[in-house]
What we know:
231 residues; alpha/beta; 5-stranded parallel sheet; 5 strands
Amino acid sequence: MTKVNSEAPGPAVVLLSGGLDSMVSAALARERGHAVHALTIDYGQRHSRELQSAKAIAEMLGVERHVELPLDLRKFGGSALTADIDVPKSGVEEDAIPVTYVPARNLVFLALTTAFAETSGSRDIFIGVNALDYSGYPDCRPEFIESFAETARLGTKQGVEGSPFTIHAPLQYMTKADIARECARLGLDPAWSWSCYDPTPGGLACGECDSCRLRQKGFEEAGVVDTTVYS
């Protein structure tokens, strides 16, 4: 007879940007039985509207603890999201790293999330990276996630003492349509999340940036209504 492990999962830390992918990842962590601790980074992004969404998502999902950490990457610039560079509205070159790439963002963010996890008694970290729709971003690729997990094992007290972190990227190989379907299955309102890189002065999603177009295409292909209001 097989012994069933009835031990409840421990707490999980979720990197919660306020975007659709991070919202679905947080809901998946909760569905798996984890008490969710959420970390949101205010990095000076031009689409700071997503910070409001992160707060709303954290409240709707009933997270145990939500930390919003200021880290002004505008001091570095180098991205259309942190500097005075136009956000592309006509697509990006195939196989090129888009100008919306924020230098080393997920490397920095995962390091901070790991520190938060180590102080939260957590061995599980969830991040909503996706290698299909955002393959142009090197810090969304599977090899980066695998490498970071090993770095975290080697560079933390918890790791060297035999309790390494597991980096969960549940959306890694999903299409945006798959993610839209998961959003619906989990009973989430898409409008809680925010994806637009370049909101209008009136606070609406532009509907033209790469992120908006990928999102709209995904929901359309999934046959799921996106309740977000676009300009």
